[in-house]
Amino acid sequence: MRYRYSGHPRKVTLDRLNGASSLATVHKRAQLVLDRVADGYDPAQEKRAAKQRTRGGESDLFADVARLFIKRYAKPKNRSWIESARLLGLRPDPKDTDKLIVLSGSLTDSWARRRTQDIKKSDVLEVLDGIMDRGAGTLANRTLAAVRKMFNWCVEREIIETSPCKGISDPAPKRERERVLSDDEIRWLWFACDKSGFPFGPAVKVLLLTGQRESEVGGMRRAEINLAFHNWTILGSRTKSGKPHDVPLSDAVISLLQKLPRIKSDAGYYFTTNGERPVSGWSRAKARLDRDMLAEARKTDPQAEIPDWVLHDIRRTVASGMARLSIDLPVIEKVLNHSSGTFRGIVRVYQRHDFAQEKSRALEDWARFVLSLVQERPADDVARPSVSEAAT
After folding, report:
1. Same domain, 163 and 213
2. Residue, of 378 and 280, whose pLDDT is higher
3. Which distant-in-sequence residues (6+ apart) come within 8 Å of 264 by Cβ?
4. Between 322 and which of 173, 327, 337, 350 could a Cys-Cys bridge form, CB atoms 3.0 to 4.6 Å apart?
């Protein structure tokens, strides 16, 4: 049986000459093929998928294919695979991190019982339109990127023949974020963290004092911290660059960590509620911080408003703040563990200086600056050396 699907010629075998089917039965099968094509499906691809399932025992339901994509492609190649999984509507099972659970109300939840071959362009557009209607343009773009990557992988593995994302452009215009928290906003954030309490209050303070990523701070373990040498070594398996990253800890961070409640567990997480896994629920915590920041702002100005910001903007705030303190750009990039900019290309290959002392001074100066805002000390105090520096 020959037909056209998405503008391309297709054919499907209905039976063999030595088969048991009569001509009338074959005619009925041909009509069924035409009916499937009229409904927007590709019978030849469906037949190939059925054979593949028979050979490999793999389901072609969207939820199962999404899990397979994370397992075979995203997890081995992408250190932020958990975020890719989340965009697809999956998350690791707390009891078994190799198992992925479907998030209720997510993209995978809505497509879970549908065959991957049955997902059409209109289905993808419907999902993106729903996200855009919530005013989440950036999330819509990121969701499309994750779904497109998954469907392209499905094409490579011959699970589907063409991607339903083909021809779909980003639903929201891309814009580079420039949001930096003002000095007042840093102060309000600090007080909001005090009100939030453990675990998110101290965790966000560490974000602000170190400039490291949310996942890195959230997954901080006691085995990574050397209190005697004021150093935090983030394992390569937890960094975006894939290489270990040493973060000198200021006196302010050490003091903060020492005051945290200790939840006994083999994992040794600093920011956890059950000891078995890092804290989760950052979005809800951020919403509470926004509310408490606004309450702080309106203590002095009842009409105050705070422009929208995200936790990742704290890294940009730290970088901009260090630049204000006349800290050199290469040192700032080393603090943030950036491999681009000053250290790209041949410089990255041959530059082996670890900038340990420079990073330590930079983070100590930045911590004193933040505390000066919180304590409303004169700015001159920030530039004064610490006791340890004066002694040397």
Report:
1. no
2. 280
3. 275
4. 327
